[in-house]
Specification:
By secondary structure, the protein is α/β, with parallel strands linked by helices. It has 2 domains: 201 residues, Metallo-beta-lactamase, Chain A (4-Layer Sandwich); 80 residues, Winged helix-like DNA-binding domain superfamily/Winged helix DNA-binding domain (Arc Repressor Mutant, subunit A), CATH 1.10.10. Helix content is 40%, strand content 19%. It has a 6-stranded mixed sheet. A hairpin with a 2-residue loop joins β7 and β8. The longest helix has 26 residues.
């Protein structure tokens, strides 16, 4: 397996695609975005290895976000490659209009619930307009959690890791006695994947994401190959760090409610992240909502309409906390 680094002009952070070309077939994990620059980069990387888009037999997609699936349709059109993804994301990847209409309606419901200002809503809707997406979309064959595939001497096993996206999966790779993962956006080396905003279809997003991270801690893989940036040599340590990060963020959410009194998601987001621009207008309140929703189910906060307040006794617990972390159950 070879890592191919690709630019990402549509979103943040350069992308990775992973090529299997040393064997009987040519396979790819993720494709990068759909921009012409990315297409040219990927074609050039293929040329260096004496393969072409037309040679690709199979494509495995970690999740539906366009910076991971953008060229899947074009490659499939040239090669007839089978494109695999989780069923929770398949319709979006295929460009199904009903799926996209439902997604956009759900986004609008949450924007209103979070009390996102109308101007910011319009900024986001313009940025995320469905028309600004890959022209060629693939036909998807679905896989399930636990499904296994063999690729040029690698044994690949699908692990469903919902949270950042509903159908997000990582791929365990066993090869030469080692087990590594292609982690997609489950585990990243620099920043923490957004939960709550990146896919508003996910129910209990923080709980699901924390469980996915704990699974990585427990498995103690030897290396992670992420969807963005450099490989991670200590996946368990990185996953544990992100769990701690979310416990610190939950403390900050509770501290905001303690200082500000009852308030809505947008106000909590502003306290945590300040003024936001671009896609962060979605990610800030989405992340805040994921924590508020988790804390509400735990009985730590109480929701009244679109506002949240601390449950009885929580302010005293906060005051007695020394390390500014709030333990989370998942």
């Amino acid at each position: 397996m070879e890592r191919i680094e690709l630019s990402n002009s549509a979103f943040e952070g350069d992308n990775n695609a992973y090529l299997f070309a040393d064997g009987d077939e040519v396979a790819l994990i993720d494709t990068g975005d759909w921009m012409e620059t990315t297409r040219e980069q990927l074609e050039a990387e293929f040329d260096e290895r004496d393969v072409a888009f037309a040679d690709v037999d199979r494509i495995f997609l970690t999740h539906w976000h366009h910076d991971h699936v953008g060229l899947a349709g074009e490659i499939q059109a040239e090669s007839g490659a089978e494109v695999y993804a989780h069923p929770a994301d398949a319709a979006l990847i295929e460009g199904d209009e009903d799926a996209w209409t439902s997604m956009e309606a759900t986004q609008k419901e949450y924007f209103d619930q979070w009390r996102m200002p109308e101007d910011d809503q319009q900024t986001l809707l313009d940025r995320m307009a469905h028309g600004d997406t890959p022209v060629a979309t693939p036909t998807v064959t679905t896989f399930e959690d636990g499904d296994q595939f063999s690729i040029n001497g690698y044994d690949l096993r699908v692990v469903h890791t919902s949270g950042h996206a509903d159908g997000l999966c990582l791929f365990e790779l066993e090869h030469d006695g080692t087990t590594e993962i292609v982690s997609g956006d489950v585990l990243l080396p620099v920043y923490t994947p957004n939960v709550g905003g990146a896919d508003v279809r996910v129910e209990r997003p923080l709980e699901k994401y924390l469980r996915a991270l704990q699974g990585i801690v427990d498995a103690d893989y030897e290396r992670a190959w992420p969807g963005h940036r450099d490989p991670i040599d200590d996946p368990a340590g990185r996953a544990a760090y992100i769990i701690d990060h979310h416990e610190e963020r939950s403390w900050r959410v509770l501290d905001a409610l303690d200082r500000l009194g009852p308030c809505d998601t947008w106000t909590v987001s502003a306290d945590l992240f300040g003024d936001l621009e671009g896609i962060h207008i979605l990610h800030g309140p989405g992340e805040s909502y994921a924590h508020l929703e988790h804390l509400e189910r735990a009985g730590t906060v109480v929701r009244d309409g679109d506002e949240y307040r601390l449950a009885d006794g929580v302010a005293d617990e906060l005051a007695a906390t020394d390390d500014e972390r709030w333990p989370l159950e998942y």
